[in-house]
Amino acid sequence: MPFRYKINNILYYCRFFATKSKKSPKTARNEKFKSFDELFNYSNSQKTLQSEKVSKENSFDALYQECMTEIYKMRAEADGYSDETRESPEIQELTKKENEIVNSVFKRVFCSNLNNLKDMNNRLNCYKSSDIDPYWDPFKNIQNLKLQIASEFNQLSKLVSSVELYKYKSMIKKSMSHFNESNNFDIIKDTQKDSEDDIDYKYKNERFWDPDIDKRLILQNHKRPFSFRDLHVLHNFVSEDGQILPRRLNLTTRKQQIQIFKSIKIARQMSLFPYDWKPLYRDRIPLLNPLQYLFDELFYKYKKSNDLRSKAMINVMINKYPDVNAHRYLKYESQKMKRATSKDSEDKDCKVV
């Protein structure tokens, strides 16, 4: 019991002196500044963040860039590539000269405003110790940055496009020179020949127009009049800027030219054909009537395999849908009837003989 009592007394005294010696941080701060004026003067004497200029690099993320460069340098030194990351002596000399020029300019401009020239020199040369640039303010508002970036991007894109054009032109010139050397190709003579053949159509009479095979197939249009559905054909009668070509270039008759003009007009009103340019390859798809497509498929099946079921469906469609074009089917049936009658007449003649 007495031993336990002594230990308790010792712990009590230790706690008492420990609590007595401690001071709260609030009381210590209040003892340092007894009045509000002292606290205010102390805060004014401290340097504000805006007065200290940060970083050598004049950019908004300069602190981050400095930290990253230091990390890269430390990593390169650890990996054994420190010689590659160090600045060359030529660059160091240029930076020294640049700093000297800037310091001289600042001394000449601000020497009348500053009382002590030594303080100014310390401010200007503070980058030596702490990598702080005295000319950059991190709180400065950056105005018209988006416009500046957009203009610079446009200039760079123009430069890149001009360089690419120059490359393509040089490649074309090289290929043409190589082709001329190998095949003895004369540009002036051959181009004159082609141009003369093209010009002949403009001054020839309609009776002497002689289009090639592809042009003839386009103008025939499967022996049907041109309509707004024939988008796979109408693009041949339009220039690159969307203008309808004249009749002497299309080699069409007056009736065909009127049909082409009306069909292009209707297709443009229905937003199927562009106004200001020639339709692209993906836009040259004809608009098919589903009934006409079904009729053509049934006729093809009947003609190929003599399917009577498809023939019955064709007869029903002709009676029910008079708008369906049944010209090929009727022509085929008439030719078939002529063959049958001719065979019957030949058989009768043979029997008579």
From TrEMBL:
InterPro entries: Ribosomal_bS18, Ribosomal_bS18_sf. Belongs to the bacterial ribosomal protein bS18 family. One of its GO terms (biological process) is translation. Pfam families: Ribosomal_S18 (PF01084). It comes from the Eukaryota. One of its GO terms (cellular component) is mitochondrial small ribosomal subunit. Keywords: Ribonucleoprotein, Ribosomal protein. The keyword ATP-binding does not apply. This is Ribosomal protein S18. Signal peptide: none annotated. It comes from Theileria orientalis. The keyword Ribonucleoprotein applies. Gene3D superfamilies: Ribosomal protein S18 (4.10.640.10). GO terms for molecular function: small ribosomal subunit rRNA binding; structural constituent of ribosome.
